[in-house]
Write a structure and sequence with these properties.
Blueprint: E1 3-7, E2 10-12, E3 18-25, E4 32-39, E5 46-52, E6 57-60, E7 68-73, E8 76-81, E9 90-98, E10 104-106, E11 110-114
Parallel strand pairs: 2-11
Antiparallel strand pairs: 1-3, 3-8, 4-5, 4-9, 5-6, 7-8, 9-10, 9-11
């Protein structure tokens, strides 16, 4: 059974930092593109950053570029979030999409709340 488990969410003040983790069991991230999505309250889910270890590349949505960093250590992908803003409040999900495009897995999500 494949599982993705996110952790690290919580309550933080504007300007603060959090680091989210996405750990996998049942797959190895070597063969997957890992994307962090988020869904703000009452809004649609959006992809914010992706890492493709096989290609050594990362992508960032403009709204998080320069503030968020995605990186991988073995079979865990991290999302370092700095200079957090109110608009970053959302449920954050990690996903794993196989390079073939045939296998797609989602974690259960972790809540990030930016509030003063």
């Amino acid at each position: 059974e494949v599982q993705l488990v996110e952790s690290g969410g919580g309550l933080v003040k504007p300007g603060g930092s959090l680091r989210l983790s996405c750990s996998a069991s049942g797959i190895t991230f070597d063969d997957y593109a890992i994307t962090w999505f988020r869904q703000p309250p009452g809004m649609q889910r959006e992809g914010i950053t992706c890492i493709k270890s096989s290609e050594g590349v990362t992508y960032y949505r403009d709204s998080v570029k320069g503030r968020f960093t995605i990186y991988r250590d073995k079979n865990t992908v991290y999302l370092q979030m700095d200079s957090l803003k109110f608009d970053d409040t959302a449920v954050y999900y990690c996903t794993a999409l196989s390079t073939s495009g045939l296998r797609d897995f989602w974690g259960q999500g972790t809540q990030v709340t930016v509030s003063s």
